[in-house]
Amino acid sequence: MGTKVMYMRVSEDVHERIRSEAEARGVSMSWFAERLLIESIERLLPGQKMRLTK
Fold first, then answer.
1. Residue 37: how many CB atoms within 10 A of its CB?
2. pLDDT (tens digit, 0 to 9) for every residue of the chain, 54 residues total?
3. Closest by alpha carbon to 3, among 36, 34, 48, 44?
4. In angstroms, what is the C-alpha Rg of the chain?
5. With the C-alpha atoms ordered 39, 3, 10, 18, is the resulting torsion angle positive or negative?
6. 10: which residues sit within 8 A by CB, 6+ positions away?
7. Closest CA relative to residue 33, chosen from 45, 17, 46, 44
8. What is the structure's pLDDT at 37?
């Protein structure tokens, strides 16, 4: 399995939080952000059971 580049806009606060947490763990921001995404995806409810609101 290869890697792909994904650009995502995040607020300065989110960026700083990811940077800070990655630094505290001694890992790259990229690695840490990918793990956050993986864990979030694994916890998602099936689409038909989810209702997104703003």
1. 12
2. 688 999 999 999 999 999 999 999 999 999 999 999 999 988 887 776 767 777
3. 34
4. 14
5. positive
6. 18
7. 17
8. 94
Residue with tokens 């290869």: 2
Could you identify the residue written with the tokens 């607020």? 11
- The CA–CA distances, whole Å, from 40 to 19, 23, 27 equal 18, 20, 19
pLDDT at 13: 97
CA distance 11 to 31: 19
Per the confidence metrics, is the pTM higher than 0.70? yes
Query: Number of helices (H) and strands (E), helices first, in the chain?
Result: 2, 0
